Amino acid sequence: MQSSRSGPDPLDPGPAGYAHRGLHNASDIPENTLAAFEAALAFGAGIECDLRLTADDHIVVFHDATAWRLCASRMRIAESSRDDLRSLRIGGQPIPTLASLLSLVGARVPMLLEVKVNGDVHRWIPALRRELAGFAGSYGVMSFDPRVSRLLKRSMPDVRRGLVVRDNLASVPRQAAMWVADPQFLSVERPALGKSWVERARRRMPVYSWTVRTAAERVQAEVQADALIWEADGRPRI
Length: 238
Hints:
The chain is α/β, with parallel strands linked by helices. The chain has helices at 34-43, 68-71, 82-85, 98-105, 121-132, 146-155, 171-181, 196-202, 215-224; strands at 18-20, 46-53, 59-61, 89-90, 93-94, 111-115, 139-143, 160-165, 185-189, 207-212, 227-230. The strands form 2 sheets. An 8-stranded parallel barrel has the order 1-2-6-7-8-9-10-11, surrounded by 6 helices. A two-stranded antiparallel ribbon has the order 4-5. β1 (18-20), α1 and β2 (46-53) form a beta-alpha-beta unit. α5 (121-132) packs across α6 (146-155) and α6 (146-155) packs parallel to α7.
C-alpha cells in the first residue's frame, strides 16, 4: 500500500485506517460520540478523536472550543466544568469523557488522541497522566501545538507522540515546530502528501494523512501515507 516505510509502526491500524472523529455521518451518528466510535470498531478501523480540557482538568472528547455547532449551547469547554457539560447533548448523546472512550475501546484498535490546546498546555500532562494511567490499549497523543509533544517526551516518555501539520504552514515555522516537538509520527493535511518535506519525514517516521474524504483522495493517500485518517467516501475498500 505504501510507497515507503520508516520501519514497524506500533500504531499501524491496518487497511481500515483511522476513522476521523469516529465513523460518523450527517444523519444519525454525530462526530466524536460513543456511537461513532462503536461504528468505527464494528468496521475494524482505528479511532482518531479530539480532546479538550475542562475548567476542572477533566478531559472530554470534543473538537470545537465552544459547544455551539454541535450542541446549540454557548458554553466554552475550557471555561466549563465536567458537571456543567453533562447537561449537553450531541444528537441525543452526552459528550464523551476520555475515560468513557478508553473503556469502550480497550485494546481492540489503536487510537490517535488529538490534544486541542487553548492556553492550557501545561495543564495537559497531569490530566493525561491521570486519565491514561493503567490503560493497556495502543494509542498516540498528537497536537498542532509542538509543545505538547515536547512535554510528553519529557514527562511521559512511554507515550507515542505526534505532531499535526497543516499543508499551508510555511517552511520556517514548520521546521521550528518539528524541532520543538521531536515527534515519533506526523499527521499531515492531505494536500501535503507527495511534497518533498513529507517524503523526507517518511523515511524517519510514520506519516498519517487527514482528512481523506473522496475515492480519488484515498487512492493518492494509500500510496503516499502510512495510514489514512478518513471519513465519508474516503473509507478504505477492505
